[in-house]
């Protein structure tokens, strides 16, 4: 246990990132805090660890299995945490661990909860960038989101899908394929998706 109050509603995230990278005890407490029943503690710990995963992913790579376990939990917030941090850790995944959880990770896109599916779609761009060999397969999944997602908010999920595809677009060879998907959503029932499609096309054209 460290001296830091992880329940504070005025947490200095940037400061805590620096401390956690130098104090292993705090890093341990942050991991434990992800399992807390206190919303503020859990949120603080996630925000600190997410920044670490972006700035110094190697510091969390040895905890890969911990985050994989979160991915399989029934608690949706635990899934949400894992979706974000595992995506960032692919930047240092020299052991190619992600390949073994690829199906489980993207299976969440086919769930019924928009909170999880939307962020799987969004974070797929990070994975595609870090794992270019997986890029074609990830694009195939994203373009088929209408058939994959089992919830009622698939039109909303498409807005996150389009955001991800915009990040992937420069690195993908068959740009016309992505453009056709985006154009097909200009008349989406979701205002957010219509706006995302319009913004995408304005940016690439």
Question: What does this entry look like structurally?
Answer:
The protein is 67% helix and 0% strand. The protein has 205 residues and is an all-alpha fold. The protein folds into two domains: 1-94, Alpha Horseshoe (Leucine-rich Repeat Variant), CATH 1.25.10.10; 101-205. Helix 8 (114-130) packs antiparallel against helix 9. The longest helix is centred in the N-terminal third of the chain and has 17 residues, at 39-55. The protein is globular and about 55 Å long. 35% of the residues are buried. The mean pLDDT is 96.
Q: What's the helical proportion of residues?
A: 55-70%
DSSP summary, beta strand count:
0
Round the Cα radius of gyration to an integer and report it: 18 Å
- Nearest-integer average pLDDT: 96
Main pleated sheet: none
Contiguous low-pLDDT stretches (5 residues minimum) are none
Number of helices: 13
Strand content: under 5%
| Bulk shape | globular
Distance between the termini: 54 Å
Give me the secondary-structure category.
Answer: mainly alpha
Q: What is the number of domains?
A: 2
SSE string, helices as H and strands as E: HHHHHHHHHHHHH
